[in-house]
Each structure stands twice: as C-alpha cells, then as structure tokens.
C-alpha cells in the first residue's frame, strides 16, 4: 500500500515541503538517509524517530487507536492536512540545535566590575541554568569561562547606557558584570529570564516539556544546581548531555525524569549519591536495578505508572526512604521488602492488581500508617487471625469489588474511604474513627463499636439504609452527616437535637415528618429535598438560629414555619429552596422574618400573587425564582431589592413587565412563557444587564425605542414572528418539534451549547445535539457550528449507523484543530431518520455520545436511557482500559487530574487515555414514543430519569418543559452549567405523519394573515430553508437591536387581504407524498422539493452585514411591519456559511444556466470578508485548505474578532432583491403558462398576485441564495425561516 507523506523541514529554518512516496513497512532511514537529515514526530511534543521506526505505520496505528476502522478511511484521514494539529512528521538536519529554547546566548559588549578600571569588550555571553557565562575571548568558547551564579543575586537596569543590564552574584564575594545589548528585544528577553533566576530561593533548573534529548552542555557550568526538572522530555543515555553525564552535578538533590519514555531504569542515576528525591514515573520501566541501594540519602522515590511487578531486596537498605510511590504498576501483592523500609509511613499502591489481602500482612509492617489500595480490583480483605492492626490510621479502598468489610481489628483507624464498592455490611472499630466515607454501596447496616466519639464527618449516601443505627445519635462530635439517596422513613429526634451537628443532608429518602426541636441547635445546613414532608417543625427557624441553608424542594409542603414566635426575628437564613411544593401566597408573609435571605427559590408552587409589602422587606435578596406558579404580576416593590441580580419568573401568567430595570445590579431576567403584551422601560438600562429572555410571550410587541434600549444586552432572546399561515405551518411541520434551555449557574460563562435541526437533509429527518465543555466555552461552540455539517457529509459516504456516527465524532475531533489540543467537551448527537433499506418505513433514532451528556426516550411513560456515560466512576471497562494504558488517576477519579471522562472530543494531549470514539446506539421509534430528553451531566446528576420524564409529561410544551428541568436542577442544588433539550415526537403507527383532510363544513377561525407570494423560476432553485418550532432570535451587544431592521423589513411588502380564501391543506408525510409536476404543486398538496444534501443548523460565527437599508425606506418614518423588527439602520445576521457553500456544491446542476449561477454565488462568497477565508486559506498550523465540499469552519471561528460577551444570531432574512416578484406586465403571461401546466394535473388556476407587489425586480442577476424555494399553491405561499439558536460566550 503506497501512501504519499508530507515531511516538512524545520519550520524555524525552511518552509519547503519534500514529498516522499513510501509504504507502511518503510523505516525512517530509508526515507531520509542515515546522515544528513532525521525525521521528528510531533505528537503534542516533538521527538526524534529512531532509524528503525516506520512513520506511516505509526500514523495508521494512531488513527486506528482513535477509532477509525476502515483501511480506506484511515488512508484518507492520514492525508488530511488538518491532522497536523494532532500528529505530524517533519525533517530537519541531524545537527540542528534542539536546545535553543533552553538558553540565551550572543556576542555583546561586556565590562567586568563596578569600577572604570575595566574596559568594554566584545564577548560571548550565555545565560543557562542558574549562571551567567562570559567567555574570555570573543566568539570563542575554548578559553577560560567566567561563571557568575545568579541565584539570590541581582539584575538591574543601567540607566546611564541604553539597553544595558548589571548582573551581580550573591554573597560577600559578589561579582558584577555589565552587558550592553544591541536591541531592545534582546534587552527585554535577557532581563525577563535573568529576573526569574535571581528570584529563586533554591538552585532550581526547570527544563520540563522542552522535547530535549540531552541536557545543554552549558548547564554543567552551573555547579550549584540542586534541583533539576527534566519531566516530559525524550532524554537519552548517550551523548555529551545525556543521562550518563548527570553525575557531573556535584550538589544535585532532586531529579525529575518522569514521562521520558526511557524503557529501562537509568542506572547512572544511582551514582548521584547526593540525591534525596528521584522521580521516574511513567517511563515503561519493568525492573529496578540492585544499584538503587547506593542512594543512601534517598528520601523520596516515585515509580508510579510503570510495569513493575517486584522490587529488589537492596531497596530495603535505604534507611532514610520515607516516601515510595508504586501506584499504577503490576504488583499482585504487597512487596515484602517494604517490611524493612521502616521510615516509609504510606503505602501508595493504587491501580495495581492486588485481588486479596490479609490484614496480618499489614500487621507485620508496623511502620505503615496510610494505606492506599484503591482501584486494585480487591475482592476480599479479611483477618484470618485475632491479631490487631494497630498502626494503620488511614485506609483507602475506593473503587474495588468488596461485598463485605470487617475492620474491627484495625483498632486505631481514623479515616476510611470505601466508596463505590458492593458493600452490604460494614463493621468498624470506633475508638479513634474520625471520618467515614462509604457512599455508593449497598449498605443496609453499619456496625461500629464502641461509639465513635471522635467521629466528625460521615457519608453514607446512595445506599439501602432503612434506618440509622442508634450509635449515630450518640456521637458527640459529629458535624456533617450525609444520608441522601437511601430508604429512610424517619430521622431520630436525638440526631436533630444534636449539639454538634452542623450539616445534615437527608434528601431523596422517604421521610414523612421531622420531629420538633427541643432546644437551640448549631445546625447550619439542612437538606430535606425529595421526601414526603407535609410540614416542617414549627420551631425550626427560631431554634436553629445558625441555619443558613435550607432545601425542602420536591415535598408536599403547604406552609412553612414562622421565622420567630414574636415580631422580632433573629434568623440568619441565607438560602431557601422551596421549589415543587404546594405553597400558596400566604407563605409570603412568613418569609419577612428572614431579612438576611440572599437566594429564594419558590418555583412550581400554587402562588397566585406575592405580597408587595412583604417583598420589600427582603432587601438583601440577590436571586429570586418564581417560575411555574400562577402569578399575574410581580409586585413593584421588587425595586426595593437593590442587590437583586437574577430574576427567573418563566411559566406564569405575567402580563406586565416588572419594575426591575432600575435595579443597579440586575444581570439576568427570564420572563419567558408568560403573557406579556408590552414593556414599559426607563430612559436607560443598567449596564449590568447581560441576559433577557422574553420568548414564549405570543402577544408581546416591541417598539423600536425598546429595541434600541436593549442593544447593549449580551443575550436577548425574542420570539421570531412567523410569516407562515396556520395551515401552511401545519403542513410544513415535521412529526416532531423541540426547544431547549440553559443556565449558567454560578459560573461567569456558559460552557454548554446545543445543536437543533428539525429539518435535516433532504427528507423527513432531524438532528439534535448538546455539548458540555465543563470549564471551557470554546470547544462546545465550535462543535455546535460544525458537527451538523460533518454528519451530513458522512451520511453521503456510508449508511451504516456505527460507521457514519463514529466518523462524525472523529472528524469533528480533528476539526477542532489547535483548540482541541488542551480543551475538550462531552458531546451527544441524536439523528432521527428512516432506515436506508426502507425509506418509507419506520423512523429510527441513532444516538452517539462521548463524555457525560445523556439522552432519555420516553416510551409509554417510562424512561429508556439511550446513551452511555463515559466517566471513570460509572464505566468499569473504561476504567480498566485507562489503567492498562498506565494513566495516573488521581484521588478524585480524574485522568491526570484533568477530567473524569475517558472519552471526549478534544483533549488530544491526553491520548491514548482519553479517546474521541463514541458509543453508538440505534433504536426504532414507534407511536408509543412521546418525547426525547437531552441533558448534560449537571442535569441528570440532580434530576433522575423518571422525574425528568414525569416533568415533561406534566408540561407537554417543549420550551416550558426544558425550562422546568433546568429550574428543578438548580433548585435541587446544582451550581454548574445546566443544559436541557426536549424533543416532542408525533410518530404514527406506520411512521406516517399525514392527517385527514379538513372538511369544508367545519367552522373556521379568522383567516390567516396573507403574505407576499413568491414564485419559483424552476426546479433548479436552491432548496427551501426549513423552519423549526419555537423560533427564537438572540441578540447581543456586538450588534444593537436597531441594526436588525433594514433587511428584516425588506423581505416584506405592503400586504392586502387576498381575494381568494386560503383553504387549509392536509398535512402529508414522506410515506404518502403529494403529486407534483415540474415544481408546481398539485391541489391539496403542500411543500416543495428540497435540495439533496441540504440541511439547516445553527449559524456559524461568520457575519454578513449591510450598512444601508436595501428597501429604500426609513423605518423611523414608516409604520413598522407586523412581525418584522426594523429601524432602517443596518442588519448584521449570522448565517451558516458552511451550509451555503455546501448547498451550492451539492448535486449536479441541471442546466448550464444553473452552473453559471452557482459559480457566481461561489465567487460572491469568496469576495465576502467573512467567507473568503474558507477558500484556499492558510491555516495557523501551516497547512492550506483547498476549496472542497466541506470547509473547516472552525478556523473562521477561531480567527474571528474576540467579543467580550460572545456572538449572537438573528434569523436569516431574504434580501428584497433576491425575491422573484412577478411584474404587472408579465402577470397574464405567467398565469397562462401556469394554467397550461396545471391542466395536465387538473389543477385549479393560480391565485391572483397581490397588487402591492409592484417592484420590478424580475431581472435581478443573482439567484436567491438564502431565499425559500416556494412554489405557488392553493393559498398564499409560505415564507419559511430557519430557527436560530445561540448563547452568549
């Protein structure tokens, strides 16, 4: 198999590419020869290839490990220039200096000493390690070298000379050198580097992550070096600066050689007798030499992440060794040599293969106090004798397979971690026990004797406890108790009245009542959510005066207790969560006493109003959630809450906009799904307002002045007024609709995004996805912009679900480019489609995901999980895979301390531990399928599958349901970004979406508003832009709302009622399509042919703008058009450039005229400042993207101007010049032609053209690139608009 590889010269010297034909077996030396050049591999770090290594085979192996399975596809990906961000090869001379970044050198004017006795002279000067080196002869290093130690010294600017620095060593015998630099750049670089050295307290040289093969020779002049860090390099043994020369450092105490791919233990390090710390982790070591016994001063030895299975006996002679790291190796038992290492107090053996352990083994090692055996696959740990283990104080047994645990013989145990096992019983000694962590097991009882009077923290959450043991109430010092997600039916009264308990978490149980408090208690946090409580103790608030956090959401409360028995209240409550109860407006009066309240969530109750006088008393309130009630107004006294920054009141009956825009700190206002009709605004808005959500207010009309005031808001969400008639909307709607919601929580930025396309491809298909970047917003945004395009392309190459979904994820991973090297995101993609083998059959749902995003299908009211959570805690096979690849898993179960996910898009620097290959699953849909829920980790951590399904069933409307899911998760304690998407499904028995024709005798409502009639010139027009349900526009500060006028208004004209009554067409489906002929719709049929391969999705970051109105009207002088936001300024609309380019290229043109039109459209795209970068643009990695069907839109997104608060989207509008309007002079001719064609299919005559359409634009030279491909039918032709989604960065 022949493959052409592109091996480039060193980018620092030449940019000439040399193409070499080779096959997978060809090694390096045959490609570039033995002497002149060598090949380097860039895999997030750079290393030289051995002469016997085979570059092409390495490339294929890398792609196969990512997840590519087809050999042909592997070859295609190997030739893709975008792959250079992940792996690439380049060639440079053998003698090229690899150490340029590790030192500074040059020939400068130098003077020694502070007196004028010495003269200035040109000398070679080198700054390397901790010393300044000055040669005695110009341009020569053969003479005497003057060494100036800089640690603890000084570097100062000499003001009398330009670009001059004074270097001084420390101590009483300090020496001084003056160096005069030629340029300001040299001066600044030397000053910056020397300042770092002189500020050190120890002689430390950090050369980590430099891709070094050897230590710079100049570094050996720094004989004062005591700490040398060489981690993440490719150090070799041989050579002038190889590891064999490290003993030349006579004072070296600490040496870090981790992650160097050594393969063998460097015995030369055993000759550095001064070493006290040696780190050789992650070097593929299999054995430790006996020479290790020479390091008698060694105190710390790290051998984690290797392949060790035994240790030499000589290691036991290191009497000063007190820390030995053996985690993530291949030990099947505890090495016996540890018995002799009396100074070692911690056994670090996590991630090994210790399947069983007898406690007597630990008893013989009397010096071990801390035992770490997590992730070992332990099946049993027992004591076969009565011997006690008295020295162990801390024991970590997390993530094993223990089903029972008896540690009563470990009499001095202070801390025990045994989470995520299979424990049914647990027996411990309570003499010295201080902390117990035993969550995520199957515990029904916990036996501790004697009573643990020293116990302060206990976590027994997610078990099967039906009652709490009596000894829990007798603990005198317990401060935190977590028993959430158990089967508890009551809490002991003595526990609640404990004089030490400060935090009690008892949510998600079966509690029906909470006993009264007898005396004042120090309780500060109480969580009782998801129980069956009908009331709270009457004395709760005035007996628990320190209570600051209370969560009683999801109960059956009808009232809350008073804050005080008298008018004076001493309450210190700051956070109160009452969501999901049966509270009414009377509870408002009981909240007045909590004057320190900062957060109040009282959503989804039965509030008809909120007392105005009571709300004004909550002056410290910062966050208020009143969603899901029956409020008609929010009291004007809310203006008294001067610290309020978040008001969420969606899903009510509010008709008047609240007086909150005068608040100085208001940031977020959510009034969606209400009944607002108008907004009364002050003259100016607070600069702090960042997000305003007004969607779902169907009667809301905004004036131009209002929109101008909203121009600075980061994210403004409004309903896009639909221009389709009621009948047309139903006829064009697919058998599903959707909406989504997202909340940023306590984060300053939103790191989640959504992809939602109700009309995907050229048939009845849909595509939905969510992306969660955890703490980064870049990767989710890039995936949102491109993943739909990638899926569309992959569908053209394969019809096998596992193939096209896997390739979609892998290609998206590659397209992340430089952004995906250090950052990553969880991703979930759902594709609704017909099976390729049966296009007219049932619908199927294909789901693919990486990370922790999840999808749940509701079928017959029951949740059906469709995704797989790829986290180390929940996926055993992934944990084993990561362990076998010798990754270091930290105590919080994160790969290298970075992410808990084993599969992500991005984070390519963690390969092969973290992979982009997704889980793929296809499920046929049926009429019992009601809806689909998509959510990120934060949502489903707080809301169970069953509760999510019940929530959506109770609401039905997708927008309100998605809003409710996010509000519930936040009220249940979630502080992270939350994302929820709900897709409502309407699948018939045979996947048919037709409906019976409407009888003409049925009563009809008022006639729909007429729209301009648009006539298509022929079937070769661009495909119709499809619409989605719940159309939303989002505006941000980068473009004022006043700029969303001219082109939006230019698509409409003066409308007059049509003389022909519009009959409601019957809805048709893909199984029973209406007959069409030459693009003319048959009577009773609706819709038009779509372009093959076209789909609509979220807009990209590319922007088209127009500075002048195209309709020649000034909207300030004209009456606003209904459903159009216009002010005559300019329009800046974010559109899908990739989608447009793909549309122009998909399919063969049907005529030379069409081909010419397409060429002109492509030329226009090339001229656009926003799209020219897509055509032959040179990327940041040095490669050039050729014009092809799929463009890397990510490069545009990465290189777009940075915006302080993100970008926004507005609906793509038709340009007035792109509409094909029939001039009055040609009306009759068109009528006759259409009538003649209609006779062939017994069609009624074409309806009359409204006389208002009088602009003669028939001969416009450009086809409507973004216009709807609509044909005249038995009613006004609909203008379909694309749904637009976006969020603020």
Automatic annotation (TrEMBL):
Residues 995-1067 are annotated as: Disordered. Signal peptide: none annotated. Protein phosphatase involved in regulation of Akt and PKC signaling. Mediates dephosphorylation in the C-terminal domain hydrophobic motif of members of the AGC Ser/Thr protein kinase family; specifically acts on 'Ser-473' of AKT1, 'Ser-660' of PRKCB isoform beta-II and 'Ser-657' of PRKCA. Akt regulates the balance between cell survival and apoptosis through a cascade that primarily alters the function of transcription factors that regulate pro- and antiapoptotic genes. Dephosphorylation of 'Ser-473' of Akt triggers apoptosis and decreases cell proliferation. Its cofactor is Mn(2+). The keyword Nucleotide-binding does not apply. Keywords: Cytoplasm, Hydrolase, Leucine-rich repeat, Manganese, Membrane, Metal-binding, Nucleus, Phosphoprotein, Protein phosphatase, Repeat. Residues 737-985 form the PPM-type phosphatase domain. It holds the Pfam family LRR_8. GO terms for cellular component: cytoplasm; membrane; nucleus. This is PH domain leucine-rich repeat-containing protein phosphatase 2.
């Amino acid at each position: 198999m022949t493959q052409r590889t592109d091996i480039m010269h060193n980018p620092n010297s030449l940019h000439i590419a040399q193409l070499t034909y080779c096959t997978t077996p060809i090694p390096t030396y045959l490609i570039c020869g033995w002497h002149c050049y060598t090949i380097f591999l860039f895999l997030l770090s750079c290393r030289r290839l051995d002469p016997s290594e085979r570059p092409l085979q390495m490339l294929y192996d890398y792609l196969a490990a990512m997840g590519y399975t087809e050999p042909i596809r592997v070859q295609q990906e190997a030739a893709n220039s975008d792959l250079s961000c992940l792996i690439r090869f380049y060639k440079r001379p053998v003698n090229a200096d690899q150490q340029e970044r590790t030192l500074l050198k040059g020939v400068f004017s130098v003077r020694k000493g502070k007196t004028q006795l010495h003269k200035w002279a040109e000398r070679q000067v080198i700054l390397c390690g901790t010393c300044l080196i000055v040669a005695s002869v110009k341009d020569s290093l053969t003479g005497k070298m003057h060494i100036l130690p800089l640690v603890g010294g000084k570097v100062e600017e000499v003001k009398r000379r330009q670009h001059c620095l004074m270097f001084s060593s420390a101590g009483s015998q300090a020496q001084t050198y003056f160096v005069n630099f030629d340029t300001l750049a040299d001066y600044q670089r030397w000053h910056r580097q020397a300042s770092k050295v002189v500020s050190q307290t120890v002689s430390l040289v950090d050369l980590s992550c430099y891709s070094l093969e050897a230590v710079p020779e100049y570094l050996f002049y720094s004989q004062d070096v005591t700490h040398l860090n060489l981690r993440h390099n490719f150090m070799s043994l041989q050579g002038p600066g190889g590891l064999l020369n490290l003993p030349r450092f006579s004072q070296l105490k600490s040496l870090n050689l981790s992650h160097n791919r050594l393969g063998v233990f460097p015995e030369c390090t055993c000759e550095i007798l001064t070493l006290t710390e040696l780190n050789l982790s992650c070097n593929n070591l299999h054995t430790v030499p006996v020479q290790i016994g020479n390091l008698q001063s060694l105190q710390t030895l790290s051998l984690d992440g290797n392949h060790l299975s035994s240790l030499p006996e000589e290691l036991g002679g290191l009497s000063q060794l007190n820390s030995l790291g053996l985690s993530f190796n291949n030990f099947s038992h505890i090495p016996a040599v540890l018995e002799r290492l009396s100074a070692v107090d911690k056994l670090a053996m996590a991630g090994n293969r210790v399947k069983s352990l007898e406690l007597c083994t630990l008893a013989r090692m009397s010096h071990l106090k801390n035992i770490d055996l997590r992730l070992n696959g332990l099946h049993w740990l027992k004591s076969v004798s009565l011997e006690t283990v008295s020295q162990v104080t801390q024991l970590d047994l997390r993530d094993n397979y223990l089903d029972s645990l008896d540690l009563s013989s470990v009499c001095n145990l202070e801390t025990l971690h045994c989470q995520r096992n299979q424990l049914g019983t647990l027996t411990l000694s309570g003499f010295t026990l201080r902390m117990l962590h035993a969550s995520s097991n199957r515990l029904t009882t916990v036996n501790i004797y004697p009573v643990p009077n020293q116990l302060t923290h206990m976590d027994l959450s997610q078990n099967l406890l039906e009652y709490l043991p009596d000894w829990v109430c007798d603990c005198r010092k317990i401060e935190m108790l977590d028993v959430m997600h158990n089967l508890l039916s009551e809490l002991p009264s003595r526990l609640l009245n404990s004089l030490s308990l400060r935090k009690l978490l008892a949510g998600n149980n079966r509690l029906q009542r909470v006993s009264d408090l007898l005396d004042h208690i120090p309780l500060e946090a109480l969580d009782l959510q998801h129980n069956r409580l009908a009331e709270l103790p009457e004395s709760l608030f005035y007996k628990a005066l320190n209570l600051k956090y209370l969560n009683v959401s999801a109960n059956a409360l009808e009232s809350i207790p008073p804050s005080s028995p008298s008018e004076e209240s001493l309450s210190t409550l700051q956070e109160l969560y009452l969501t999901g109860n049966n509270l009414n407006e009377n509870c408002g009066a009981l909240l007045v006493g909590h004057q320190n309240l900062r957060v109040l969530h009282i959503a989804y109750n039965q509030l008809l109003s909120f007392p105005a006088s009571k709300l004004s008393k909550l002056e410290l309130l910062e966050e208020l959630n009143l969603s899901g009630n029956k409020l008609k107004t929010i009291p004007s006294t809310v203006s008294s809450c001067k610290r309020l920054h978040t008001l969420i009141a969606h899903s009510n009956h509010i008709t008047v906009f609240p007086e909150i825009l005068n608040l100085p700190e208001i940031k977020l206002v959510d009034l969606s799904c209400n009944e607002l009709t108008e907004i009364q605004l002050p003259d100016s808005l607070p600069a702090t307002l960042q997000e305003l959500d007004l969607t779902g207010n169907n009667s809301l009309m905004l004036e131009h002045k209002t929109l101008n005031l909203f121009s600075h808001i980061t994210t403004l969400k409004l309903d896009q007024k639909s221009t389709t008639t009621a009948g047309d909307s139903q006829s064009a709607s697919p058998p599903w609709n959707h909406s989504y919601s997202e909340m940023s929580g306590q984060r300053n930025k939103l790191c989640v995004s959504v992809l939602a396309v109700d009309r995907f491809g050229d048939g009845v298909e849909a595509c939905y996805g969510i992306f969660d970047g955890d703490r980064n917003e870049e990767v989710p945004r890039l995936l949102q912009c491109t993943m739909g395009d990638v899926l569309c392309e992959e569908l053209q190459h394969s019809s096998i679900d596992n193939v096209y979904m896997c390739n979609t994820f892998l290609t998206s991973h590659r397209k992340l480019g430089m952004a995906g090297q250090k950052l990553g995101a969880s991703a979930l993609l759902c594709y609704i489609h017909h099976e390729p083998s049966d296009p007219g059959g049932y619908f199927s749902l294909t789901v693919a995901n990486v990370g922790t995003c999840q999808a749940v299908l509701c079928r017959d009211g029951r949740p059906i999980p469709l995704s797989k959570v790829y986290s180390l805690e929940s996926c055993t096979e992934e944990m084993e895979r990561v362990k076998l690849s010798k990754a270091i898993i930290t105590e919080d179960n994160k790969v290298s301390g970075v992410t808990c996910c084993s599969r992500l898009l991005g984070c390519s620097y963690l390969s092969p531990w973290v992979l982009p290959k997704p889980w793929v699953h296809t499920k046929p849909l049926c009429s019992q399928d009601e809806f689909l829920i998509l959510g990120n980790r934060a949502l489903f951590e707080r809301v169970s599958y069953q509760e999510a399904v019940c929530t959506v069933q109770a609401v039905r409307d997708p927008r309100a349901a998605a809003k409710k899911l996010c509000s519930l998760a936040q009220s249940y304690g979630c502080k992270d970004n939350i994302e929820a998407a709900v897709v409502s499904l309407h699948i018939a028995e045979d996947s048919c979406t037709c409906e019976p024709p409407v009888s003409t005798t049925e009563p009809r409502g008022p006639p729909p508003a007429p729209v301009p009639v648009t006539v298509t010139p022929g079937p070769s027009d661009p495909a119709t832009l499809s619409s989605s349900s719940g159309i939303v526009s989002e505006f941000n500060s980068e473009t004022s709302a006043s700029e969303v006028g001219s082109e939006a208004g230019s698509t409409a004209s003066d409308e007059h009622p049509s003389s022909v009554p519009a009959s409601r067409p019957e809805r048709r489906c893909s199984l029973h399509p209406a007959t069409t002929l030459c693009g003319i719709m048959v009577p009773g049929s609706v819709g038009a042919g779509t372009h093959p391969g076209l789909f609509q999705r979220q807009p990209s970051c590319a922007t088209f703008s127009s500075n002048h109105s195209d309709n020649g009207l000034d909207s300030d002088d004209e009456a606003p058009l209904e459903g159009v936001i216009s002010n005559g300024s300019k329009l800046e609309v974010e559109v899908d450039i990739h989608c447009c380019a793909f549309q122009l290229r998909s399919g063969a043109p049907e005529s030379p005229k069409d081909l010419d039109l397409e060429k002109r459209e492509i030329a226009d795209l090339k001229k656009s400042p926003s799209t020219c970068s897509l055509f032959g643009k040179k990327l940041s990695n040095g490669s050039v993207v050729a014009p092809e069907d799929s463009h890397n839109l990510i490069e545009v997104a990465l290189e777009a101007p940075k915006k302080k608060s993100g970008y926004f989207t507005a609906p793509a509008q038709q340009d007035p010049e792109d509409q094909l309007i029939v001039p009055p002079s040609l009306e009759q001719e068109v009528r006759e032609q259409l009538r003649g064609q209609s006779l062939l299919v017994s069609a009624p005559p074409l309806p009359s053209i409204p006389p208002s359409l009088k602009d003669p634009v028939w001969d416009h030279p450009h086809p409507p690139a973004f216009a709807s491909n609509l044909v005249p039918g038995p009613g006004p032709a609909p203008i379909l608009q694309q749904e637009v989604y976006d969020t603020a960065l």
